[in-house]
Amino acid sequence: MPFDLTSITPYLGDLAAGARLTALACLLALAGGLAIGIVVALMRTAALPLARRVAEFYVDVFRNVPFIVQLFFLFYGLPEIGPELSPFNTGVLGLALAGGAFTSDVIRSGILALEPGVLEAAQVSGLSRLTIYRRIVLPMALRTSIRPLGAVFVNLILTSSILSAITINELTGVAKIVASDTFQPFEVYALLLLAYFAMTTLVSLAAGALHRRLNRHLQGGPV
Amino acid sequence: MRYSGFTWHDVVVLLQGLGVSVGLFLATTIIGLALGLAWATVRYYRTPVLAPLVAALAELLKNSPVLVQLFLVFFGLPVLLGADLTPVEAALITLSGNTAAFVYVIATSSIESVGHEQLETARVFGLSRWQTLRRVVAPQAAAFGFGPLTGLLINQLQVTSLISVIGVVDLTKVGAILNVRTLEPFLVWSVIGVLYYLMARLIARVCARAETRLRAHSEWKGL
């Protein structure tokens, strides 16, 4: 059977719409994951033992339970106790929660990589704690974490394909429909594989470029 | 008549699902390790044609969603080959290939971590390339690569949950079945989540113990 793409052409618009939904979900989840990740990373590096323990527990659970199980838990379990979210919102929430755990890891190591002297100098200068976090710790930690954050974002994009399991028609969901419409699963899924490959390559290239740009003044050049 | 309550038989079904998940995890880990190490050896010998091909394949597998790879193998491959694949076969092929790609990356970077002067010294002593790999590079690379390998194995355990989507009755699929029958999503998905969590913990424990043994000879024991 020859590799034939002609019968897929009419569906390219649908696939593009799916790709847009994937991108939207990933960007929203990235923003949410970053917010959660920063808070959790600060908790994990805090002096208060309780804050550390709570944050460790969160990261431990969300990293050691499969994403699809987390997603089913939210999709089926959440309406029992709380508000009924649309599938898309549930998906974004799930991605953000799982992404937050991985993001906090990256930011935490960024914070731990800070020179203790810098923090001591800030404290001696009489800066308030909030100012130290806002003006010194986070900018420096985030700046050195851009490239690993790019890797987390790449993983988020790959993970977002699982959203198709809770009836969201993002890129993979649309592709499933197209595959059963055209009876050409191999062509459709091979194309899908390349589409994801292109997206993730683009993201990691962009993250690398941003990393180099933001760290250009560092001694000995960006790492 | 509806059987909506939990019965003792559900425990048996749950254990069966657990067995399928663990079995597939072990099988794909063994095949993936063998395949990934073989690919890394191809690269170590700088085999013409084959080495870049393997590198490109690993890159493609690493940068695309496992779910899409699974669909490609399960729905696409039979059409291309004109032969049927069972869900378990498709899961075996996909997960082994995916594990192999990550093992390849870990193995090549571990091999590169061994200092170049050691390779030159080995050559000066008249060791063949194979002897150098077996006696000099491999033991050090194994110790170096064990940490990342632990992380990979925990991740691959979670990836096995995706095969429920193509109809393999693994732990996640059992969860989905019980969820629909009992309408107790909160309880069902919590139990499934805890089981995965415990398995991940077990893998981490076993790997940590193996790593201390592997590093025992190189540890500083004092004068």
Offer a quick outline of the entry.
Chain A is mainly α. Helix content of chain A is 77%, strand content 0%. Chain A has nine helices and no strands.
* C-alpha termini separation of chain B: 76 Å
- Arithmetic mean pLDDT of chain B: 90
CATH class of chain A: Mainly Alpha
| Uncertain spans of chain A | none
Distance between the termini of chain A: 48 Å
Fraction of residues of chain B in helices? over 70%
Strand content of chain A: under 5%
- Broad shape of chain B: flat
Relative strand content of chain B: under 5%
CATH fold type of chain A = MetI-like fold
What's the Cα radius of gyration of chain A? 21 Å
How many domain modules of chain A?
A: 1
- The sequence of SSEs of chain A as H and E is HHHHHHHHH
- The CATH homologous superfamily of chain B is termed MetI-like
Q: How many DSSP H or I helices of chain B?
A: 8
CATH class of chain B: Mainly Alpha
The overall average pLDDT of chain A, rounded, is 90
| String of helices and strands of chain B | HHHHHHHH
Largest sheet properties of chain A: none
